[in-house]
Amino acid sequence: MQNYKTVWSNCLQIIKDNLGPNNEQVFRTWFEPIVPIQLEDNVLTIQVPSQFFYEWLEEHFIDLLKRTIRLQLGPNGMLKYSILMDTSIAGTPITTSIPSSGKQATYNRAKEMPLVVNSDDNHREIPNPFVLPGIQKVKINSQLNGNYTLENFVEGDCNRLARAAGYAVAENPGRTSFNPLLLHGGVGLGKTHLAHAIGIKTKEKHPDITVLYVTSEQFLQQYVESVKNKNTNDFIHFYELVDFLILDDIQFWTSKGVHTQEAFFHIFNYLHQKNRQIIITSDKAPSEMGSLEPRLLSRLKWGLSADLSTPDVSTRIAILKQKLDNDGIEMPEDVIEYIAYNIDTNIRELEGALVSLIAQSSLNHRQITIELAKQMIDKFVKSTSREITIDYIQRVVCDYFKLPLDSIQSPTRKREIVQARQLTMYFAKKLTKSSLAIIGLQCGNKDHATVLHACKTVANLNETDKQFHFWVDELEKKIRE
Ligand code: ADP
Ligand code: MG
Q: Hey, which CATH number is domain 313-383, 3.40.50.720, 1.20.1560.10, 3.40.50.10800, 1.10.8.60?
């Protein structure tokens, strides 16, 4: 009797060898997370983290998996997936066997509705800015920005899942479980870029598909307009002609437009039922979109929600290099690294810094050097000066005294930690607008009297103790940096 763990670890070895050394990242992303759980009657069950993961394996590695299983378990060997946490589609069965034929369903959708409306057929105008009436036909303009392609969307840990999901959607629009695909992440992290890129890739792969990109704000305006003109039905009908709808920045709706949301809800259902693809972006996670219509919110949870997070420094360097490459500009390596290390907020700011630096150098006929970069970034960072938070103060203080970050929260009475806690309280009082009670709460659940006492103690020591005075001085500089 073979042990399932041994069998899977042999499989992994085969897979790794087959993928080769250039695909280590692929191996780490798609195979390392798999957990073997059972071997019974020649059926090996493996656990995968999500429906998305399962589909990805099936789509990209089915042949490799089959060969591997055959080598390990013989011709009757089978692989069964157990999906750990299915956030994709309600009601999907928990286990899915590898399909014996392994054939891919080809994307071949008959159109239910003509996308080109002959104006001769009916004289009804579709009142929408995206419909450009031609002499014979009306055509929908996608509103896609050709500069935002998947090819120039640099891949990194911060966007791997979203990018991969986007790619899968472009290959098989409306036919994956990522429908809707929800892209979310903070400002300037690439949601809009990726959404356009998926639309462009889709058109490349399926030229007949009608893609439409629209911002939530535009959608809202059109809707309001249609209400005013009493042709909301035409408005809805127009959206029902679309095969692939991208709605950008849905968080814009959370504060307004109940009726707009209803109209969208209607359109959403219609498109979804007909297996048309929907992509939605938001700078909030679904769980934080409290004021979105609950029915709509629950729809958004049907598909895949993919995060875009802050890029790490190597991705930031890669992004800068790509932008420079695109524009045919050369820049010394150390300057690129300097910018990448210093601008860590988001990609829009990273680009902004790069552009200012290039502008500075060409306006003043100065060479791009690290000194110039320093001057520019100093200004740049100051102008976008971040708000000082209690959290941030804690980090600076702990870092300064080389204490673990959670020590301030702990109840310990150790002298050095008490001191660090008091300093944190003092600076929180001085540099933030937080109340004593809030400061106490965030610094180890103390009451406001303790915070007050801490502030007095620090102020006293600052005047009487030389060493202490030095610390306070240094810390304040660091916090304000
Ligand atoms: P968001 O919509 O999330 O606010 P954007 O999509 O507008 O962010 O991105 C901001 C800028 O950063 C754009 O100019 C975009 O091209 C660029 N950008 C974002 N992510 C990437 C990436 N992975 N590779 C290259 N450029 C990127
Ligand atoms: Mg955007």
A: 1.10.8.60
